[in-house]
């Protein structure tokens, strides 16, 4: 029986109501901060800032733009790999990210950036954090790709951003854990949030759309666009909100190296796992990124260059094996259908990242960091002025558990909400098919008239036709 | 009757002659400015500039590269959506942009950057402005996509850049209007220029190539590459030549927010306008960008974050409705064939941007901007030292009319020139077909042997067949 | 007879062993430099550096990211043009680049960055140089595309990086030649290295895979992604390690102009060379980049804007004619099979760049550069304090010969090694086919059951098969 997937009322309603709500809330709460306000010039004079270059804009904007590309092109195109769900992959990614960043500016603002006058003062750092925040929801989308309606995704994002802001506040501000690249805050939380939702929404008859669950040649090439932009810009992701100076510099080096090591190990495991050693695009598109995820927490630490290589080396081995053994196991046994394999790309490497961060922090010493360096890197100031590296390690570990807990509990709750039969999600037989929510190009409809299979065949594809003429 | 579309003489002739002309003119007029000359070090000492970072290069280069990507990949791939005109879309965009930036450096140089010694001194800001200038011509190309020859496009660009430099001079220097993101100077002018040309070149029998006027599945995904790079980098576009410090910072925030709001409203209108609420890729690919266009004039102003959201909200509603109702109406009634719907993406949002700019400027006050802030933001110095915000609003409005006038009159003149039967433009039946100007991969040539329209038709599209079995 | 292309043991073995070797060598040799170390703050105080902005990170990171995109997306997608080798094009590019940058950090480190304590201290400049270094090997890959196994590519890269580091040391440090954009060091060396290897590995029966040596419509569009990202970011490539301040600024302007001129001349020659003046995508995808290659050595020099236009103008004419006449000639007569035509895009323009650099250097004068400017631009300090511009020109020329010599001799040696029958390279009939080393989407595997050639052809296509099963 076909479900009612008509979203002509629900989607526009949700988009309009929420966008208008954003406008009202921004009107009440959001203002420019002193660096993006025309009074910056007075501020400069007051603070004796010698040059406009000291405006945080010039420290962070290039990194921001790289992160921005990762969110919209990176995540978006990585999800175009399905043969008939490329519109939904890149299109819905676009929709929920654009909504999420607005809601994130408010949620994170209330928790982190509320000024004495009750206003949220925003600058480029807020834009970066908003992008980070939606990344968690986009990861969650990866588990549900092709099985949910855009309305469900909007709900997933509304709650996802809310949960994110709270767990982020607990981990970064209350526990005072460091997580500049979000191994815990973004990847671990986002992955378990999405996996739990997918578990709640388990579809026993999903095999009915099995024929659409694969890729085609060109959709795999499209997905590589996403992979490469994520891979190339990940050093910016892990350094975007790191400390000015050596902090950003070191985060870039560590991430660059971890990612480089990830590529070789992914190719190795992918080849060894297949008959004739043939490579699998699924592994190349995903596991090569594990090093970036796993370096998110420790990116600013003095983990050393070879330490970064080791992190990338190990995380990609685990990630690739995850795609080979764990994903099928989870679907069969645990009833978790994970379309993009986020458990392998985000959950496990994210947890590794949290553990690496805890260990690296615990073993930090003045002999390596220098006295000032240690204080600056871990912000051992004010409330935590007398915290030691050892203790910091413990708090880092605690942060990891908070992230997991928020993912599991939050995912269960939101999954329950999304299970309601009101959201216009597709029937099992119509999953992974853009036909459900998109007007696909006319010409394809016209072909419905055709009845001659072989002809159609040749017509279908330029390549095919030509070859039969060579 | 097939037209003569042989451009073997005309295209090479135009390219060669004009490139050689560029070399000669650059030899006579163009030199490095003091920041890109080896004497910069002496200049630094003279001016007591403490660091190389104060070289404008470091303020503007990251933004320049983002703008550069928008011009070549953004505009280029946005125009690959047609099923058989992707080569022409991205290829001719490449050709005319590469010519246009050279001609723009000269034209804008003569009007804005002429030094006492009669030389044009160029630096990174000139490169940005040259990219801006060709954007106007690329917008115009959008209206003519698939219906003109590359030779015609070179002519369109030669005159388009010339007209641009003049109207820009009038609007920015004589009227002293502000337009950092070019809502008026770039988008309004470019759109009306292109629409008028398309009106003059009206093709009554264009329906003969109707079967090629649509997209196919993968060409729509290619077009999303263009959309997303335009969307992501638009904050750089509207801030690239804004004031150092808070100016660039604020322009980024305003544009980022306007674009975010545009996405939700576009999805809403697109869904509500279709049976079953299915989304239309044409809207997603275009109307989501309206907020960036509409924020071009006011990007630097203290429009407030929620003000930016409102601008994005409204402009995308109008833009999406334009695609649904206006474009068909314009083609039928006004005889304007607008391939890419630039009237909806650039003309209307551009005009909105001009109006928003005028209103925001007119309502600017010292209480909001601060005394210095107001002066800096609107450059109330020298000649216009005693201009008030109110008066500025009037001049902004005047600028908008100048842009429209130049677009309409210039388009009519250039359209007349392009109507001459000497440019090798395609016959109505051969529009939107790369076969005319490109060596398309072998296999497809063989398809041309067929005379059977339907056959031809179906072969056109890779993804055709699938649907007939779903 | 089909060859044994099973790489299930060899590829994983090479990847694992080499990655572990990297980890060990990095552990022994590589550390953070003073700008990426937590002790940066102490270093700042010692050196009286007023702001974190003076950290080289802020001078170079944006350029680094652009270069990074060129290496992975630019080179990668440029090599996706073949109809059935897109996976191999972008995938193997990814593999060897990720290995190459690690090996390059070590090799270049030992030659250029070895500290008194025997450690290689790395920062952002090292990352840029590592990317530059692998570019040489990726160019070489272009000549062998589709005809070698990934294991051979790993060997090609291991030796390629090693040779690169040595010739770079000789050219830049011993000869003290300038080559910021690597016309000689990167392009000339890489191209002759690859061409010689391809000559040694000559395949007389390659025509057996002729039907796979072309492109299809969408693979040509994919390749344009590579072309455009190379074209847009080339100014960053030629300026990334240029002098702070005017050096980087001027390098950007010169490269931007040379590339603009290249586009027009490429379109001209491409059109004039074809019946009916139809444009050839091969030329547009490649020869438009010749200007960037040819501007690599002289990018920092006072070559003047029109000089840059002339360089782009000439190099693209030669490059395009190369594709039309030289490539077929080389294959027939010289037995050099050059899949991507690197001789036209890198070898010839690279040599032109070296010559242009020598002439420009030789004709440099204090009247043009200013006394300080001349010294700074050519680093006439320490050992070469009393070198004149004339003499510098001679050393530049010498550098060009060193690059060519290393390419030819190195290529011959490595080609000999790669000729061994142990590397799992494909049979002549299986070249340019992803089937050999990749798990192509399921539907295609099933197609392999078929034995009927024509059928096979039709089945070659992912879309085809799946559809007939829906």
Automatic annotation (TrEMBL), chains A, B, C:
Main location: membrane
Record-linked InterPro entries: Ammonium/urea_transptr (IPR029020), NH4_transpt_AmtB-like_dom (IPR024041), RhesusRHD (IPR002229)
GO cellular component: plasma membrane
Keyword Transcription: no
GO molecular function annotations of the record: ammonium channel activity
GO biological process: ammonium homeostasis
Record localization: Cell membrane
Keywords: Ammonia transport, Cell membrane, Glycoprotein, Membrane, Transmembrane, Transmembrane helix, Transport
Domain called Ammonium transporter AmtB-like: residue spans: 55-435
Pfam families: Ammonium_transp
Regions crossing the membrane: 9-30, 63-82, 94-114, 126-146, 153-172, 184-202, 214-233, 253-272, 284-303, 309-326, 397-418
Region (Disordered): 447-470
Superkingdom: Eukaryota
Membrane-topology descriptor: Multi-pass membrane protein
Subunit comment: Homotrimer.
Function of the molecule: Functions as an ammonia transporter. May play a role in the elimination of ammonia in the gill.
UniProt similarity note: Belongs to the ammonium transporter (TC 2.A.49) family. Rh subfamily.
Protein name, per record: Rh family, C glycoprotein, like 1
Organism expressing this protein natively: Cyprinus carpio
Phylogenetic lineage: Eukaryota, Metazoa, Chordata, Craniata, Vertebrata
Gene (name only): LOC109111418
């Amino acid at each position: 029986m076909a479900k009612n997937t008509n979203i002509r009322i629900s989607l526009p309603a949700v988009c309009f109501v929420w966008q208008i709500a954003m406008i009202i809330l921004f009107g009440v709460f959001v203002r420019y901060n002193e660096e993006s306000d025309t009074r910056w010039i007075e501020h400069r004079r007051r603070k004796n800032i010698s040059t406009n270059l000291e405006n945080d804009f010039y420290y962070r904007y290039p990194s921001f733009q790289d992160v921005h590309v990762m969110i919209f092109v990176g995540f978006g195109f990585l999800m175009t790999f399905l043969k008939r769900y490329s519109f939904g992959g890149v299109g819905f990614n676009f929709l929920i990210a654009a909504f999420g960043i607005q809601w994130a500016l408010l949620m994170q603002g209330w928790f982190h950036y509320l000024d004495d006058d009750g206003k949220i003062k925003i600058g480029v750092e807020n834009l970066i954090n908003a992008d980070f925040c939606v990344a968690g929801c986009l990861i969650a989308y990866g588990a549900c790709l092709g099985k949910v309606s855009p309305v469900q995704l909007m709900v997933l994002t509304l709650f996802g951003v809310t949960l994110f802001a709270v767990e982020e506040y607990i981990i970064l501000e209350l526990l005072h854990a460091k997580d500049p690249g979000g191994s815990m805050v973004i990847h671990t939380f986002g992955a378990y949030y999405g996996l739990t939702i997918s578990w709640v929404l388990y579809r026993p008859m999903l095999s009915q759309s099995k024929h659409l669950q694969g890729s085609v040649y060109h959709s795999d090439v499209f997905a590589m666009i996403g992979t490469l932009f994520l891979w190339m810009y990940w050093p910016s992701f892990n350094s975007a909100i790191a400390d000015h100076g050596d902090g950003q510099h070191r985060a870039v080096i560590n991430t660059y190296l971890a990612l480089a090591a990830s590529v070789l190990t992914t190719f190795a495991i992918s080849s060894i796992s297949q008959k004739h050693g043939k490579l699998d695009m699924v592994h190349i598109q995903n596991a090569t990124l594990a090093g970036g995820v796993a370096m998110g927490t420790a990116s600013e630490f003095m983990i050393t260059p070879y330490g970064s290589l080791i992190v990338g080396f190990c995380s990609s081995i685990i990630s690739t094996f995850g795609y080979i053994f764990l994903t099928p196991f989870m679907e069969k046994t645990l009833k978790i259908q994970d379309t993009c394999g986020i458990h392998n790309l985000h959950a496990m490497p994210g947890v590794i990242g949290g553990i690496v961060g805890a260990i690296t922090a615990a073993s930090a010493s003045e002999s390596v960091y220098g006295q000032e360096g240690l204080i600056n890197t871990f912000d051992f100031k004010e409330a935590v002025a007398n915290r030691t590296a050892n203790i910091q390690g413990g708090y880092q570990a605690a942060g990891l558990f908070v992230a997991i807990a928020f993912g599991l509990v939050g995912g269960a709750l939101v999954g329950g909400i999304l299970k309601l039969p009101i959201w216009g999600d597709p029937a099992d037989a119509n999953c992974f098919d853009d036909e459900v929510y998109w007007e696909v190009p006319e010409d394809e409809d016209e072909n419905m008239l055709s009845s001659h299979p072989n002809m159609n065949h040749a017509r279908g594809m330029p390549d095919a036709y030509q070859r039969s003429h060579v």
